[in-house]
Design a protein that fits this description.
With 1471 residues, this protein is mainly beta. It contains 14 helices and 102 strands. The longest helix has 39 residues, at 127-165. It starts with 6 loop residues before the first helix and ends with a helix. 27% of the residues are buried.
Length: 1471
């Protein structure tokens, strides 16, 4: 178990100490050989170690993540999936020093610094000897490689012999270890598809393009096929569009056939790479990945997902941002996700997304199967980059309280026609009650109907499911049960078909070529032949719940479908009993249930077909019913090790007695809590695990138990307690060694603090030096025996004008770290320059989004004159050298400076220069780039004054560790004198308390928290701020109880007087004294006191005020040492007004004891301009009477009176002057009388009418313009008009003086203004103003422009029409309708004629014009009178007569009928 380290510990960054911090990981990678595989990486020095080195393929190493092995660990053996050696590779020696020694240039320089190399240099001093040594080393390396190749060849030959000797046991169908990968390429480029295939006998591989076999001979130079050591490749040369296709590789042997697919897409290139360039070099296993056309891709994985925690049923997304430089528009890297060494494919559980710069894996429905180490791998043509983090999945809440967690990892094994074995893993938690067993459910694919397979729970984590229908597919799930109830079901298994394994093998591939083997299936027809005996019957599995038998079908040919009967026999008897009497089984597997535990049985099997039942097989040996697989023993000693501030590495001894071990479960508990929580919910196979998600600073103990199919072992013994805190390690090397001063025999060095301090304070530094002669460095010498705490040191006893190199090592409580890289070569000669040397030890504090503080130390070398100031320079980190600019134009004498106005998220670097009288000296070393960004959780120093008046500075840091310290400074110099400032630190908070604040305390106070990412802050205590704080301190020392409100007085019901105030806050021990005119008052009939300490309200109530109560009332408060008082002076008019109001309120209270007015009589004007007198009454009863009066006379009740909902109403419609008067309402019953009066005389009536006028005005319509025959009229309508309404017409904002030409009037509800005979002078703005006694209301209209033109034109038209109507010819009257006259009589008719001009008159008889003659005389006199005279009528004159008058304005006619009759007397005489 412990022989191989699991992948997640190999690649997880927690595996070694370098993992414990990103800083350490990046730093250690500079001094140790890198395992990262890039195109430009060199071979590790360890790869040339002597002896045989066989590469291991267990777990997820780089060779499984990529078909290209890492150059850091080369192997010369080719192995298949089962780690069997199938070939070897001869490396190519390039003859360069790098490959001869196995060292890069940088590593070679490092080796020269070792003691071994020093000895070799002393031995071979001449250049000739060194060349000879190098030649011998190269020959030795070549000889060792040849020996390894020879040994590998012998191992390979031994493996081939072993395969031949065990051919039957090793035969298996083809399997793709590495499948071909799809490619997208540009025209004229080459593409290579390769795959690795395992299988025995060796599979035959054929390549297809769109299902057409590829023949290299048919297309010479186009295709190239290679097969070496189970690695098969297809190379397509100079691709064109016709090469875009789906390619298939088919591997086949006598055991079956398998295919894999890959697509090639060829695109036309658009200029990013010149087409004249040669085709890219092809990568090989010896050369590693190469760069396309000289482009080396640099891959960086940033914004990474961390260790994640989820719960079953939730959705989780893991994502990283991938930066690839240079960025090509069409180039896309290969993105792969792995879980626990297994490549993930898209499924309903796993969704993968690549957006161009971010890779995301979404786990749609978490289950415990998803727990494990997730690895993102980004592959480019220059290599690959990986990142890993662990994902933990907790159990979801149980549906039944106390029920266990769900089982996991349900799989199906040994599937046959009607038989499948289902396996699973036990859950980590049982929630306090042991698991009684498991139930297995099955569901036929395509349905949602789950069927329980076992009636009683099985404790074994494996169960044979029988009774399946051949040819159908099933899924399975498992549920655990304890005495509390049933767990949630597990995740369903993958679908599996119930069918013969041979049929399944044949169905895995498509049409296979001829293999030389004929397979005879059972379905072929045969004659009636009774089958023979089954072969090799054995008990494959035995538990106390069931026994599983397996056998082989009988030999022979031409057998129809064979089925089987199983028989059992109790040992010691000869009675055989058939088990499956009803239905014979089809599969050569059978599970027997209901056997008596502890008894021994033998078994045998018979074959049957349509011809009959065959002879039984040989019986098995006696098998005792019981569990053959024992529960594993408890694991051994558990050892926890500190790792990070939220994780612990737990290792343990493997279980000694463990068969078919599934893994281990780890549990952790906070000491003395007695609560155990699982650290993993999926068994781990290693004996070492990193437990995440722990609480920083807590002390934990751990225990482990093993698990196999039989169950869970007992827990191991509890581990020793361990505190969760980051582990410590020796610090990384310092860097940036520079010279601060140089004299004849000594040099002052400075260096920068290591980027990783190992989790503990650095206790000191050690400096070494060596002399360099003619470019050859000498032996290292210690410069100091005792560690120096400062980052500057004077190295003495040097020789003048000699050259030296230096190296520095840092030390902490974990030990001394590795030395830094050797410094540049410095010449030891005395400095004589006049200007100062460089400042040193630059530090950055208090980084915020717009500012930071830079600290430095003055130069060691002063120059000719003392240093009198410093200049700070700044530039963006990626800006050129010309971008340096000064921060301060005037030199500062301080050794610190706050730099403001930074741009958020911008990266900056800084440097400092010192000056003296001679000028500005050398620049300091440049700081590391720092982003202007306020980190989340950053807090500032807060000043506080407590209740005792003590002033303190407080700083809180959320990122403190157990080793963190709060370092307080004044003006950025650490304070050691505690006489003025005392520091108190507790947890993540620190307080600096001033003893006696004064002017000498003015300055900048800062606090730095060690072992954090630069957590710091500062506070400036200025003179004004100190004065303010001292005032607050005085208030706190001599406190005053704050008041929300001062003492006040108010009147309550019944005229009672309430004196009250409210304090801000008072404790339960607070008390109050009540004083009147310096005399204490006490509780009694006259004074009622109350103090509500919850709200701080203090009150005193008096029933009434008397003249003796005139004076000063005072409330005196005391709460501990805090006091306060408030007074209220009630004298003179103030007291009299209060007393009067009190008496009034008292009377009001008594008034309201009977019927009374809640709201006194008032009026309301309705929208219809009716006046409604109303009042609201209360405390009424049936006997209460309400009487209305006007001017002392009672108003009789009629339809205008009303009483609804406690409101009395009197409606006055169309109010007029006669309605003015004094109205009164009287309420009366046996409890009393109340009266309300409303004065509507003079001003009261005027106010009422003004409100009526306001309603009328608001109801008016906008002014409109219309035309008449006499002029233009302006008008508006109101909803109601009152004769008392006063309106004023305005023209151009001036009141109009009315005349005969301009008049106003009212018609109904219309108010109008008439302009007679308008002219252009009448154009302008007109308005009507309604007077309502307030602001009035004005309606305006503009009579000008088009409005005036249209109105004037209409006026002219109407005027002309009126004139025409008046002047047209008319017959005014005088003519009858019928005239009856006696013959012989004279007829004279006269009518009036009008018209201007005088109309023409025409007479008609029977529509014919007649003229005047002696018989009929027609006259028209004075233009007015027309006469018609017949001197002696006769019957001939009878008829219809008409008069027609006509002038230029019109024509009119008048008709009459003349009827002449003959008298009878006259008629008789004639006869």
């Amino acid at each position: 178990m412990s022989g191989s380290i699991p992948f997640y510990q190999k690649h997880h960054r927690h595996y070694d100490r370098g993992y414990r911090s990103k800083e350490a990981e990046s730093k250690v990678s500079q001094y140790q050989s890198s395992s990262r595989y890039t195109a430009g990486s060199s071979m590790s020095a360890t790869s040339s170690s002597r002896g045989l080195k066989v590469s291991s393929h267990s777990g997820l190493d780089a060779s499984r993540l990529s078909p290209i092995p890492k150059r850091a660990k080369p192997t010369y053996l080719a192995v298949d999936k089962e780690n069997q050696i199938i070939g070897y590779v001869v490396p190519i020696f390039r003859g360069s020093q790098e490959f001869a020694t196995g060292l890069s240039d940088t590593e070679e320089a490092r080796v020269r610094d070792t003691a071994a190399y020093m000895a070799r240099r002393d031995l071979f001093t001449s250049g000739l000897e060194m060349e000879r040594s190098e030649l011998i080393s190269r020959k030795q390396t070549m000889r060792e490689s040849a020996e390894r190749i020879s040994l590998n060849k012998r191992i390979h030959e031994h493996g081939e012999h072993f395969k031949r000797m065990n051919e039957d046991s090793l035969m298996h169908p083809p399997e793709f270890v590495i499948k071909p990968r799809s490619h997208t390429v540009w025209e004229k480029q080459c593409v290579r598809l390769h795959c690795t295939v395992s299988g025995w006998p060796d599979p035959r591989v054929v390549w297809y393009k769109n299902n057409v076999t590829i023949d290299p001979l048919a297309n010479p130079g186009k295709y190239k096929l290679e097969s070496r050591y189970s690695v098969h490749s297809l190379e397509i040369n100079r691709c064109d569009f016709d090469d875009t296709a789906q390619y298939r590789v088919s591997a086949m042997n006598s055991k079956g056939e398998l295919s894999a697919f890959a697509s090639v897409v060829v695109k036309r290139f658009k200029g990013e790479i010149d087409e004249s360039l040669p085709a890219p070099r092809r990568a090989s296993t010896e050369d590693g990945p190469v760069s396309e056309y000289g482009i080396t891709f640099q891959t960086h994985i940033v914004d990474r997902f961390g260790v994640s925690f989820g719960r079953e049923g939730e959705t989780m997304s893991l994502g990283c941002t991938v930066i690839i430089y240079p960025s090509l528009h069409r180039y896309q890297p290969e993105i792969q996700w792995y879980r626990n060494d297994a490549l993930l494919s898209p499924s309903k559980w796993n969704h993968m997304h690549w957006s161009g710069d971010r890779a995301t894996l979404t786990l749609t429905h978490l289950n415990k199967e998803d727990e494990g180490l997730y690895t993102l791998r980004v592959t480019t043509k220059s290599g690959y980059e990986t990142y890993s983090a662990y994902v933990f999945v907790r159990d979801s809440d149980a549906e039944v309280e106390g029920a266990p967690g769900a089982p996991l990892d349900v799989r199906c094994l040994d599937a046959n026609k009607d038989y499948i074995i289902v396996t699973w893993k036990q859950p980590a938690i049982d929630r306090g009650s042991s698991i009684l067993g498991y139930f297995v459910d099955r569901c036929e694919v395509g349905t949602n109907h789950w069927i329980q397979c076992n009636d009683t729970p099985v404790k074994f984590a494996r169960f044979p499911v029988t009774g399946l229908v051949e040819g159908r597919s099933y899924t399975f799930r498992v549920r655990a049960v304890n005495k509390s109830g049933m767990s949630r079901p597990s995740r369903v298994s993958e679908p599996v078909a119930a069918m013969d394994p041979a049929d399944r093998a044949r169905m895995r591939g498509t049409s296979a070529p001829w293999t030389g083997q004929i397979i005879v299936t059972e379905e072929e027809p045969a004659e009636s032949i009774v089958p023979g005996r089954p072969l090799e019957l054995q008990v494959t599995e035995a538990t106390k719940n069931y026994v599983v038998l397996s056998w082989k079908p009988p030999g022979g040919k031409c057998l129809e479908g064979v089925m089987y009967y199983v028989e059992k026999c109790v040992s010691g008897t000869d009675s055989w009993q058939r088990v499956n009497t009803e239905i014979p089984v089809k599969s050569p597997r059978f599970a027997l249930f209901d056997l008596a535990e502890g008894k021994s049985y033998s078994f045998r099997v018979r074959c049957c077909n349509s011809a009959g039942v065959g002879e039984p097989s040989d019986p098995t040996e006696a098998t005792t019913v019981g569990d053959k697989l024992d529960i594993p023993s408890a694991p051994g000693k558990v050892v926890p090790t500190r790792n990070t501030d939220t994780s612990v590495v737990v290792s343990w001894e493997a279980s000694r007695e463990a068969k078919e071990l599934v893994g281990y479960y780890i549990e952790g508990s906070i000491v003395n809590s007695n609560v155990w929580e699982p650290c993993n919910n999926k068994p781990v196979n290693a004996t070492r695990f990193i437990c995440h998600g722990l609480m920083t600073g807590e002390i934990y103990v751990f225990r482990v138990r093993a698990v196999n199919a039989a169950g869970l072992s007992q827990f191991s013994q509890e581990s020793e307690p361990v505190e969760v805190k980051a582990a410590i390690a020796s610090p990384a090397p310092p860097y940036g060694i520079s010279v601060l001063e140089c004299v004849r025999d000594s040099m002052v060095l400075a260096w920068k603090q290591p980027t990783f301090i190992g989790g503990a304070d650095i206790t000191g530094y050690f400096v070494d030096y060596r002399e360099v002669i003619d470019g050859v460095p000498g032996k290292w010498h210690e410069a100091n025996i005792r560690a120096v705490s400062e980052r500057a040191y004077r190295v003495s006893d040097l020789k003048e004008n000699r050259k030296y190199q230096f190296q520095v090592r840092a030390a902490n409580m974990a030990g001394v770290g590795i030395p830094s890289l050797p410094s540049d070569t410095f010449l030891c000669e005395e400095w004589t320059i006049a200007v100062p040397g460089p400042p040193h030890d630059l530090q950055i504090r208090e980084v915020r989004s717009d500012s930071l503080v830079l600290l430095w130390k003055p130069p060691v070398y002063q120059g000719r004159d003392p240093v009198n100031g410093f200049y700070v320079d700044i530039k963006e980190a990626d800006a050129p050298e010309e971008a340096w600019r000064g921060v301060n134009n005037k030199a500062t004498e301080k050794t610190y400076l706050k730099i403001k106005n930074l741009k958020e998220t911008e990266m900056y670097v800084f440097r400092v220069r010192a000056q003296n009288k001679a000028g500005v000296g050398k620049t300091s070393d440049v700081t590391e780039p720092v982003p202007a960004l306020t980190k989340p959780g950053t807090k500032e120093i807060l000043v506080d004054v407590d209740d005792d008046g003590i002033i303190s500075l407080n700083f809180e840091c959320c990122d403190v560790t157990a080793d963190s310290k709060f370092v307080w400074s004044k003006n950025y110099e650490e304070m050691t004198d505690s006489s003025r400032l005392t520091v108190e630190t507790k947890g993540n908070k620190s307080k600096a308390v001033f003893q006696t604040p004064g002017e000498e305390d003015i300055g900048i106070y800062s606090c730095l928290v060690t072992h954090t990412d630069g957590a710091s802050s500062s506070y400036t205590l200025s003179e004004e701020e100190l004065k303010r704080l001292l005032e607050i301190s005085h208030d706190h020392k001599f406190p005053i109880i704050p008041l929300k409100s001062e003492l006040a007085v108010e009147l309550l019901e019944k005229g009672r007087v309430r004196f009250w105030l409210q304090a801000e806050k008072m404790s339960a021990s607070g008390k109050v004294d009540y004083v009147f005119n310096d005399n204490a008052l006490s509780q009694g009939e006259k004074y009622k006191m109350n103090f509500d300490k919850n709200t701080g309200v203090i009150e005193m109530i008096m029933e009434s005020l008397t003249p003796a109560d005139e004076g000063t009332f005072t409330f005196q408060l005391q709460d501990g040492k805090a006091t306060n008082q408030s007074s209220l002076v009630l004298i003179g008019d103030v007291f009299k007004e209060l007393q009067k109001e009190s008496e009034f309120q008292r009377k009001e209270w008594f008034r309201k004891q009977g019927p009374h007015f809640i709201e006194y009589l008032g009026y309301e004007v309705t929208p219809e301009c009716c006046v409604l007198l109303k009042c609201k009454v209360g405390n009424m009863k049936k006997e209460t009477s309400a009487l209305w009066y006007k001017d002392g006379r009672e108003i009789k009740a009629d339809e205008h009176l009303g009483f609804t909902e406690g409101v009395l109403k009197l409606e006055i419609a169309q109010i007029s002057k006669k309605d003015s008067g004094v109205y009164k309402v009287v309420l009366k019953d046996d409890r009393g009388t109340d009266t309300s009066t409303l004065n509507l005389i003079d001003q009261g009536f005027k106010d009422l009418m003004n409100e009526v006028f306001s309603f009328i005005a608001n109801s008016s319509t906008p002014l409109k313009i219309t035309s008449t025959e006499t002029g233009i009229r302006l008008y508006t309508f109101v909803s109601y008009y009152n004769d008392l309404l006063q309106v004023t017409w305005h023209y151009k904002d001036s009141a109009i003086s009315f005349s005969d030409r301009i008049k106003s009037g009212v018609v109904g509800e219309q108010l109008w203004l008439q302009i007679t005979e308008p002219t252009e002078k009448d154009m302008g703005k007109y308005a009507i103003e309604f007077n309502d006694g307030k602001g009035g209301l004005r309606r305006t209209v503009e009579l000008s422009g088009q409005a005036f033109d249209d109105a004037f034109a209409e006026f002219q038209r109407l005027k002309a029409a009126a004139i025409a109507e008046r002047s047209r010819a008319r017959v005014a009257g005088g003519l009858p309708d019928v005239v009856t006259i006696q013959e012989g009589k004279a007829l004279n008719l006269t009518c009036n004629i009008s018209g201007d001009p005088i109309p023409e008159v025409t007479w008609l008889k029977n529509d014919r014009e007649i003229t005047s003659d002696d018989h009929c005389i027609l006259k028209f006199e004075s233009g007015k009178f027309a006469s018609f005279t017949i001197t002696a009528v006769n019957t001939a004159d009878s008829g219809k007569y008409s008069i027609l008058v006509k002038n230029k304005y019109g024509t009119e006619s008048g008709d009459f009928t003349v009827s002449v009759f003959i008298p009878e007397e006259a008629g008789g005489k004639k006869k």
